[in-house]
Amino acid sequence: MTGKEIRQKFLDFFEQKDHTIVKSSSLVPENDPTLLFTNAGMNQFKDTFLGVEKRNYSRAATCQKVVRAGGKHNDLENVGRTARHHTFFEMLGNFSFGDYFKRGVINYAWEFLTEVLGLDKEKLYISVFHEDDEAFNIWKNEIGISETRISKLGEKENFWSMGDTGPCGPCSEIHIDQGPEIGCGRSCCDPECDCDRFLELWNLVFMQYDRDAEGTLHPLPKPSIDTGMGLERIAAVVQNVTSNFDTDLIRPIIEETASIAGIRYKDNEKLDISLRVIADHARATT
Ligand code: GLY
Question: I want to staple 95 with a disulfide (CB 3.0 to 4.6 A). Which of 28, 35, 60, 181 is the partner?
């Protein structure tokens, strides 16, 4: 399946589930002085979550162009050095504005990954916010995931916010076990380890609060849903490669750059990092 096909399958899946397909907003957010670049699919819906803006739909899905090169979500220093970080990437997301909540989003995500993309259920691991028994129980009792494959993690991993202020809430992440050979060699056995073995695929955010400049959390008018799944990451998994840079979305740019430079990719690790950085930055600039 190509990256283009995965993107389309995602949008088609959610359209069939009564979501309105909304275009990616500009990388430079309109009317939001808190952000230099769009850093998540939910940015264009910030005021809808806050109840300030009304839309004529309560479910949406997007493939959002995103840059994470500064601010709260900054991946710049990792680009080229890891298999999975970019400045620019495309984020697949589905959103509920006071419509479905935890049960709905968990069921949709599971159906898309296991039935539409056909991922192996046994390789999928879940993390939930440590205080969120409701999400834990949905995964365990309704989806049927063994509790040994569900981790309860803290705020750093499982509480998502767009920035220092704005909509936020506990989240649940779906990870895939890429196998011990991809791991860090330490005794990593669940998503708490930060190495590439347990790769985070999809973040399901249960939007419940608005954080003010003092850090106080105020309940949102209606509990809502915001999700984010990196297209390049899911493409790597579906295409059975261990680096996003080896997917059809990026590898051709690397090959073209190497050809212009008169070198070969995967001959020299230092040059490979440069080729990956150039491919990433070329995509971001374009
Ligand atoms: N808004 C969810 C995410 O960026 O992971």
Answer: 60
Is there a single domain that holds both residue 264 and residue 168? no
173 lines ligand 1 (CB under 6 A): no
The residue whose CA is least distant from atom 2 of ligand 1 is 228
Claim to verify: residue 49 and residue 76 sit in the same structural domain: yes
- Structural domain span for residue 274: 249-285
Residues 165-176: what's their mean pLDDT? 96
What total of structural domains would you count in the chain?
2
CB distance 42 to 70 below 8 Å: no
Looking at residues 77-92, what average pLDDT do you find? 93
d(CA 99, CA 104): 9
Class of residue 140 by CB neighbours under 10 A (exposed 0-12, middle 13-18, buried 19+) = middle
Pair (111, 239) in one structural domain: yes
Q: Calculate how far, in angstroms, residue 263's C-alpha sits from the geometric centre of ligand 1.
A: 37
By mean pLDDT, which of 66-70, 94-98, 112-116, 261-265 is the weakest? 66-70
What is the reported pTM? 0.94
Of all residues in the chain, the percent with pLDDT exceeding 90 is: 84
